[in-house]
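Anyone? Bumping this.
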Amino acid sequence: MTPKLILIAARGANGCIGRDGRLPWRVKADLKRFKEMTRHKPVLMGRKTWESIGKPLPGRDNLVLTRDPHFRAPGGFTYPSLEALLAAGRAMALAKGVDEVCVIGGATLYEATMPIADRLALTEIDLSPQGDAFFPDFDQTLWTETARETLPRGEQDDAMAVLRIFERRGPSSSSPR
Ligand SMILES: NC(=O)c1ccc[n+]([C@@H]2O[C@H](COP(=O)([O-])OP(=O)(O)OC[C@H]3O[C@@H](n4cnc5c(N)ncnc54)[C@H](OP(=O)(O)O)[C@@H]3O)[C@@H](O)[C@H]2O)c1
C-alpha cells in the first residue's frame, strides 16, 4: 500500500505561515498536536524549514530538499529533487510500518506537494501577522473537511487555534489510475 501524503501546516487568517524564517506566533497547543501527528513518521521539508527548526525532529526520519549538493543536514537526509524526496519518504514509511508521510513546510514544499496530497491538517491561527511565507490557496471543492477541533489555549499562547482536517475528494494526481 502506498503511504498517504499529509500536509501539516499552521496558517494565519491571512494565509501567513512564516516571517524571517520563523513562525510568526507562539501557540504551544499546535506544536503539541504537530508532535502527535508526526510521531514515528517521515517528515519532509525544504532546506529553509530545516534551518529554521535548527535540529532534527527526534523520533522521526527528517528528509530535506535542497538543490545545493554540498548542503549537509546532520541527523537528517538530503535530496536534490522532489521525486527523490517523496520516493525516500514513502520507502522509509513502509520500512517503519507507518501509513503516512508528512510534508511539514515551508511554503515552497506545500505548493509543490498540494496536487498530490491526500490529506491536509491545517491549524488556523486567529491572527493575521505580517510575513513573507504563505500557505498556497487551495480549491476547497476538491476537499472535504472531516474534522475540526478548537485547540486548548495555553496561558502563553498568542491566539486561539483551530485544527481542521481535509481529505481529498477524488484521486490525487499521483494516484494510480
Ligand atoms: N506555519 C507553518 O506551519 C510552517 C511550517 C514550516 C515552515 N514554515 C515557515 O515557512 C518559511 C520557509 O518556507 P520557504 O517556502 O521560504 O522555504 P522551504 O520550503 O522551507 O525551503 C525552500 C528550499 O527548499 C529547496 N527546494 C525547494 N524546492 C526544491 C526543488 N524542487 N528541488 C530542490 N530543492 C528545492 C531549496 O533549497 P536550497 O535553496 O538549499 O536549494 C529552497 O530554497 C519559514 O518562515 C518557516 O518558519 C511555517
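Late reply, but here is one note on the structure posted above: The longest helix spans residues 82-96.
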